[in-house]
TrEMBL record:
Keyword line: Carbohydrate metabolism, Cellulose degradation, Glycosidase, Hydrolase, Polysaccharide degradation, Signal
Annotated source species: Micromonospora nigra
UniProt name for this protein: Beta-glucosidase
GO cellular component, one term: cytosol
Residues that hold substrate according to the record: Q26, H127, N171, Y303, W400, E407, W408
Catalytic residues as annotated in Swiss-Prot or TrEMBL: E172, E353
The organism's place on the tree of life at top rank: Bacteria
Family to which the UniProt record says this protein belongs: Belongs to the glycosyl hydrolase 1 family.
Main EC class the enzyme belongs to: hydrolase
């Protein structure tokens, strides 16, 4: 049980998994090397008007070439866990067929480099970079793509299963649904609600099929989903706002949590979508058994609360970060963690993302003073500590992100890293928050 640490600080459980996270398209660059195929994010970011300044992930933080230096930076931080994602089009250029050995070798070298430095690898199988060839046959609107994902996952498990102890299936299905298919500001850039929830079902199906594929390999790896969860609060104390917040929570959280962990879609959301929706028509017998295949852990990503008004709209209560969608509310972290444990049982949890963008500049003396990130992390970690003290079985915490990187539609304008990247030179500079985080990890206490 965590207790008071030194100097009245907050001590974390022995062996707590201090970490940081990244994803392939956001950091790797090298989009045309070693047999990599195109992904929907290559297509999307190269389409004029889709990303800020026309930025693409073609170079990004050049991690594909600089991974050894990045591994040393992780070691210097004292990380215990590193969460990265595997680029599907590096493993299967067109999303099907025999795996590309050169692609697998990159992740083998990365995993080996982590083990050599005493850092535990955690790999996400899908962090949004769908092979373009699969988009051309319908993308996640096609049920077949869920089966293609299971085949890809199987190939990765067989090649890397001996050195990756923890797998995450699909990063944030909700963000794919919302940003990719409702609002359209992420790839594939659609605005089609009827398609969006069919996509949600197929993403959940893909998750379940990958869990089954891992079990079939007989390996010892653990696996779970990665959900971004938003606590949804009524904006005022009217019954109408409470009712609207409940349904909003259904779409944001229960759609994914209930199907994966309880084997049913929430009745209020199904009723709201209606029996004629493409999603309702796309659910087949046996799908929910597959989707709810037992998992070993659930990954939670927390960024912001949502305040829901009586008419089903949203409003703001707290200051935002540079990301206009993000209100800074550390207690939301406590609320979402304790809620998952209360409603879904004592399944082990990991926090796989938490962070914010700050207006960082590299000063003449070579330092980056991101004081805002230090206070954000300190306050959120205090909420994490409180949740652990109240019985949440949380095993690890990962800052988003290790490095400044390609922030999707926002390009390189937003800096989310513990480590500053000077893009013209690709020089890495640990920010003030990195030095602070190193001390937290070393003390195992706040
Ligand atoms: C996550 N929201 O996306 C992604 O997993 C990361 O790749 C990304 O860089 C990071 O968070 C920062 O944006 C999110 O609207 C996108 O609440 C949107 C939301 C949350 C997370």
């Amino acid at each position: 049980d965590p207790a008071e640490g030194p100097a009245g600080g907050l001590r974390f459980p022995t062996g707590f998994g201090w970490g940081a996270a990244t994803s392939a398209y956001q950091i790797e660059g090298a989009t045309k090397e070693d047999g990599r195929g195109e992904s929907i994010w290559d297509t999307f970011s190269r389409t004029p008007g889709r990303t800020r300044n026309g930025d693409t992930g073609d170079v990004a933080a050049d991690h594909y070439h600089r991974y050894a230096e990045d591994l040393d930076l992780m070691r210097d931080l004292g990380l215990r866990s590193y969460r990265f994602s595997i680029s599907w089009p590096r493993i299967q250029a067109d999303g099907t067929g025999a795996p590309n050995q050169r692609g697998l070798d990159f992740y083998r070298r990365l995993a080996d480099g982590l083990h050599e430095r005493g850092i535990s690898p955690m790999a996400t199988l899908f962090h949004w970079d769908l092979p373009q060839a699969l988009q051309d046959i319908g993308g996640w609107e096609s049920r077949d793509v869920a089966h293609r994902f299971a085949d890809y996952a199987d190939a990765v498990f067989r090649a890397l299963g001996d050195r990756i102890p923890v797998w995450l299936t699909i990063n944030e299905p909700k963000t794919v649904v919302q940003n990719g298919y409702l609002e359209g500001h992420h790839a594939p850039g659609r605005q089609d609600p009827d398609a969006a929830y069919l996509v949600a079902h197929h993403l959940q199906l893909a998750h379940g099929l990958a869990v089954r594929a891992l079990r079939a390999t007989g390996g010892t790896g653990r696996i779970g989903p990665a959900f971004n969860l938003h606590p949804c609060y009524p904006a005022d104390d009217t019954p109408a706002a409470a009712e609207a917040a409940r349904l909003y929570d259904g779409y944001e959280n229960r759609l994914y949590l209930d199907s994966a962990l309880k084997g049913s879609y929430p009745a209020d959301v199904l009723a709201d979508l209606g029996p004629g929706s493409r999603m309702a028509r796309g659910i087949r017998d046996g799908d929910l058994e597959l989707i709810s295949a037992p998992v070993d852990l659930v990954a939670v990503q927390y960024y912001t609360p949502i305040y829901v008004t009586a008419d089903g709209g949203t409003t703001r209560r707290w200051p935002t970060s540079e990301a206009q969608w993000q209100q800074i509310y550390p207690d939301g972290m406590y609320d979402i963690l304790t809620r998952v444990t209360r409603d879904y049982g004592p399944v082990p949890l990991t926090i796989t993302e938490n962070g914010l963008p700050t207006p960082d500049v590299l000063a003449d003396d070579g330092t980056v003073d991101d004081a805002g990130r230090v206070s954000f992390l300190r306050e959120h970690l205090a909420a994490v500590h409180r949740a652990i003290s109240d019985g949440v079985p949380l095993e690890s915490y990962h800052v988003w992100s290790l490095l400044d990187n390609f922030e999707w539609a926002e390009g390189y304008d937003q800096r989310w890293g513990l480590i500053y990247v000077d893009y013209p030179t690709q020089r890495r500079v640990p920010k003030r928050s990195a030095h602070w985080y190193r001390q937290v990890i070393a003390a195992n206490a706040l």
